[in-house]
């Protein structure tokens, strides 16, 4: 097949092409160019693609096309023709929104279904005719048990982000759902990775599938500028606050490992005068939706999220992602930074790394096959915080404190309460570029720079110069690699 460069050349029906034109997309993305004809033909598909590649339109458009080509005859309410399973509420809502967007010039009806909200409105909605159901597995099974949904008419099944569904322990639920579907159907499985578990699942679900794979965003695109700052866990909150304020960032998605960490960080940033909100699985659906809406429309500048809550969050032209902590699973780093640098716009992804995370950093760099550029923040040195008596910091810090004796600087910046509270240190000029003043020590270290906090000379020189010197031999070694 030639490389189709227009949506029209993919054979999509006219109402769908009109909807695509309305969105402003000019060309199909690689996953769309490959998946759309494949799905239109009716065969099964195993696709390696992650969020940010345009995969949602890659399956939604041809599914809508197939439904238009084969109109339903005498269907019952609550009996979908297409079932799309996704791991999270957010992704479910987003996929269904895509169905509505691309199907807006058609009469095709869709519905979203997830847990954590009252089931009754869903039961009411299932009393109406339905073509496409987008659901999370648990709530779908609740409905199946209550017989409020009838899956016996499903013609097309999509498992979206199947790797994440397995990670989240949905395999049993998926198997129960599969048992409720007709044997004869089309199956599409999308996954960021093809692990052994995914291969096994696909063998059980897919029938002689076509296989397509598109490159990971971060290897395919240079649009995401990846940097890391070496710091200490206990300093991260102040540092992040400082970076956001100093840089004038207005929309930044921050990842934490834990729900509690997300809450605490959002509280801290709010105390520092930033508009911040946390989003994670313990929040009510209403609170999550509110936070996300605020973030999208600019009322919330900093959205702090756990990996699972952030999965599926799709914000056009999100400029900044911060890894407050590195994820335990290297693939999650790729998912995280894939939130930015989408659809042709540039983005930045900054990781705050402490020495306990060096192993994770190594694993990530191995996965992405390149070093993450090391950056230092001018006007910020770990010493500035470290010099404060521990009890001052502890009031606002739920993390175990590293033993550090209060220490005085010789002069220059001295210790800066401004830095601690997130305010710009008075002695530092504000960055004019809209990004933090940084010094790159390029390359990366498999080790943290030797005691970076201790080596600061207190002369008012930036932490950058300090880090640069200590990292220089490793950098040379890396560049020579
Ligand atoms: P997805 O990978 O499905 O989460 O999509 C990622 C982002 O790409 C979404 O914001 C889509 O609106 C956008 N997108 C999808 N297809 C295209 C396209 N052909 N051209 C430009 N942007 C697109």
Task: Output the radius of gyration.
Answer: 25 Å
Low-confidence segments, given as residue ranges, are 384-481
What's the CATH class label of the largest domain?
Alpha Beta
| Small molecules bound | adenosine monophosphate
Largest sheet, in brief, is:
8 strands, mixed
Oligomer: single chain
Helix/strand/pairing class, anyone? alpha/beta
CATH topology of the largest domain: Rossmann fold
Q: Could you tell me the strand content as a percent range?
A: 5-15%
CATH architecture field of the largest domain: 3-Layer(aba) Sandwich
Overall average residue pLDDT: 77
Key words describing this protein structure:
seven-stranded parallel beta sheet; disordered C terminus; Rossmann fold; binds adenosine monophosphate; 20 helices; 481 residues; alpha/beta
Element layout with pairings:
Layout: H1 14-23, H2 30-41, E1 45-48, H3 55-69, E2 82-85, H4 89-102, E3 110-113, H5 120-125, E4 132-135, H6 137-146, E5 156-159, H7 162-167, H8 171-178, E6 186-191, H9 196-205, E7 210-213, H10 217-220, E8 224-230, H11 236-247, E9 252-255, H12 259-271, E10 276-279, H13 285-296, E11 302-305, H14 307-310, E12 320-323, H15 330-337, E13 347-353, H16 358-368, E14 373-377, H17 382-386, H18 390-394, H19 417-421, E15 438-440, H20 463-479
Parallel strand pairs: 1-6, 1-7, 2-4, 2-5, 3-4, 5-6, 8-13, 8-14, 9-11, 9-12, 10-11, 12-13
Antiparallel strand pairs: 14-15
